[in-house]
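Quick one before lunch.
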Amino acid sequence: MSKRDGHSAQKLDGLALSATMRDDIRAAITQHVAEGGQVPGLAVLLVGSDPASAVYVRNKSKACEHTGIHSRIVRLPATISSADLVAEVDRLNADASIHGILVQLPLPPHISTQTVLERIAVAKDVDGFNAMNIGRLVLRDPGIRPCTPRGVMALLHHHGISTRGLHAVVVGASNIVGRPMALELLLDGATVTICHRFTRELEQHVRQADLLVSAVGRTGIVDADWLRDGAVVVDIAMNRAPDGSLCGDLDAVVVQQKASWYTPVPGGVGPMTVTMLLLNTMQAAGISLPAASN
Ligand code: GUN
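Model of the guanine complex:
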């Protein structure tokens, strides 16, 4: 199936699906509270003053407000000690009004990220990053699932794309995106190749992909000319072009000439990540999901 005949690729519109899902989430929470249930609460720990993190946290907080989730942003200085940060997590673990806890990453280099993430109660780990939640995903019995990979799967499934039997190539092997993304795809029945900084012949792997997921965070590593005609392309990155605009890892014009389906940047995976955080928080608060949102 050649897609070389112009802009024939179909968009995986994360903004549109997110809007529908957030309305569903809001309806479920409204009903839960009207029936006497507790308002779900999300605490976000923001350490230091990284501008990108501040924007992400603000977006998460606004999305919470829209859906009726109470959000509490805990701002902490970059100089905080590991012990004091862990003590903050302990306080939130013990707070019955808080159902989800998220530590915005990256943390300052003097803090052990995994030590802090492991301290979050498993049932409140709405990022799904601690060893128990990742381990459950490995064992095909997911608990709370990492938001970005969960959002990608929701976007694919909503558009009727099953990855069963597809050769999925994931570029990037980070703990928060690439690795759990590969696990989600494996769970869905894909044959998965994970590429990373030590991978030789990246081009040869990308050329084999029925589904390419790029989570590099830098343009110029994955060349869209390598794509198979008709591939499904999920670009998870949020990079700044030299003119200041947002862009993904791949050249969007070439992607749209070659792919069957693609995620735009912005408006693809980004909004889905936040929507999955809302869904995870709702789940952590014991509120049942709208049937269409799983
Ligand atoms: N920083 C960049 N992405 C994420 C994310 O998904 N969760 C958290 N906690 N921090 C991030």
